[in-house]
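Key idea: predict the complex, not the pieces.
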Amino acid sequence: MIEEKDIVEELTTTDYKYGFYTDIENETSSKGLNEDVIRFISKKKNEPEFMLQWRLKAYNYWKNMKQPNWAKLNIPPIDYQEIYYYAAPKKNSKPKSLDEVDPEILKTFEKLGIPLGERAKLAGVAVDAVMDSVSVSTSFKDKLGELGIIFCSISEALEHHPELVKKYLGSVVPMTDNYFAALNSAVFSDGSFCYIPKGVRCPMELSTYFRINAKSSGQFERTLIIADEGSYVSYLEGCSAPMRDENQLHAAVVELIAHDNAEIKYSTVQNWYPGDKNGKGGIYNFVTKRGICHNHSKISWTQVETGSAITWKYPSCILKGDYSVGEFYSVALTNNYQQADTGTKMIHLGRNSKSRIVSKGISAGKSQNSYRGLVSVSKKAENARNFSQCDSLLLGDKCGAHTFPYIDTNNRTAVIEHEATTSKISDEIIFYCNQRGIATEDAIGLIVNGYAKEVLNQLPMEFAVEAQKLLAVSLEGSVG
Amino acid sequence: MALLKIENLSANVNGNKILKGINLEVNAGEIHAIMGPNGSGKSTLANVLTGKEGYDITGGTIEFMGKNLFDMSAEERAREGIFLAFQYPVEIPGVSNANFMKTAINEKRKHKGLPPIDAMEFLQLMTEKAKLVEIDRKFLNRSVNEGFSGGEKKRNEVFQMAMLEPTLAILDETDSGLDIDALKIVANGVNKLSKATNAFVVITHYQRLLDYIIPDFVHVLYNGRIVKTGNKNLALELEEKGYDEIKQNANL
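Result:
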């Protein structure tokens, strides 16, 4: 039995494979945060005046806020004045074509396996890649343009479609929503913008890849996706960062707007650097993601969370419209000293609105993994339906899994179902697999992927395969 | 050369002596039955042979096809051709029988330097072997043993055995908890798989399985030792007289 434990120790220490650093010149703001830094960012981005005022308002609001501490997370103090709020690759920060992008940056994205450029066309995925604060390249823009689809960085959107940004920015996640959303509103530097016109079905997966490269920099991206009436879009977000001993901050905001009869599918594969096996370094990931559903519309969140030292994230749906549908599919894996407090909120406002939550937590090493969810049904939401499934899988005996499901219902016609299971990969199961010729690591991969299948199946095909590999790599054989 | 050669094997569990000097030789083409009262060390022997953790080997040797078994991990032993039909098969949620078998077969093939099995070939193999143990093909898409009845789990063990075609198959009380129909199916499966090139070690508490699987040798395991060896008539004798006489003789 002692040997089994040794295996756990040995195998929960897999190295992070995306931890390289790209040596490119950066242009940064001065360290710390004040009105001047915000003016600098806004000026760098050549923003319209309303944007600057919006940022300053958010900053002044944020100054008087306190970092929340209700999550089951142990967050070391963060010195917000020690962070660079703007870092951009220096050369050609606004490339016209792929040829003008710094080859070092292209190499970085190549190492990450993101289809950019020609590879993008072959793979049929439109990618917007964000390195630190600046959007590097958006592939496929012309082809999407023919359909009236706007897919670009949010900076470009501010330049070319300020009226759309002005109308929707902060409409789902107000700047005052929470501490990190306020911070993001003040300093966000880039992110993706997407608008699908009425009745258009976006013919390809849209994808953004975020990477934190520069040292001591935070990444504060802002994503805004608007699906106009009767349209459809599937969007995928991926992330990674170099290995560094100090912690880096990531505070993003994502807003989705699904107009009547529209559908948005938003998938995330989050693989920020989780810190080393002793819990040193890693990304602090504080993200606010929320979508609003109008009549007969649908928003589906799928997330595979394997990275970050700390994850604080609750992709949510405001089911405002009648017959609107919200879905949340999540696999959150924590290993070593990682901490995750993640889940969703389904706010039922419309009649006959439906939501479905499938959360699969996997804890290994000495990690702590919490599901936190809220299902709320308002007075007017006749016949609201919710189904929640929260499963936890434990590997070893030093980790923790926690579930905090909140239900708040004000309408007697609501039907809310909640199912939960906790299981452990036991020695018996491992031996059974060994006896069939399957080594312990492969057995765990097989079981974890089986366990997470329902969620992985929601991902677009090519990313499902990636996510599967990522789960196996992140765990490589941690059992007890 | 014997397929399996156990010499003077002793093993402890948590400091308790369970096996106290076992000698056993199994040749290709043979079926051996190991019988004995509860707690005599039958399952321990099966677990030690297959490399389960938690057993201290305190003496003796085991050779499998001329190789020292103690040099191999549990999965290596399996890939070399040792199979255990478990007394209590575990459930593996989320992993389909088909996927599980495909993984297992490919591990074995990789070990032999063969490429992964072709999808069509695998499908044919499954259909064929499912017929052999009379299990519904629907089973194959269900998670391994999840929600299976006791009898279904045991049949699934025999199905897996048929799929993996082991050189040495150990059946650990596969008959326990089976009704007569299921028992016949299991026995029939074993009989069909038995060849001149493989061998079976059937661990059982009762004689009734041996009505359908005719052993070449019957060994009685008691208190960590093989105290008597005979042919199939020994099993009948035990059925009639019980273990009392054996116990008395052994304790003298």
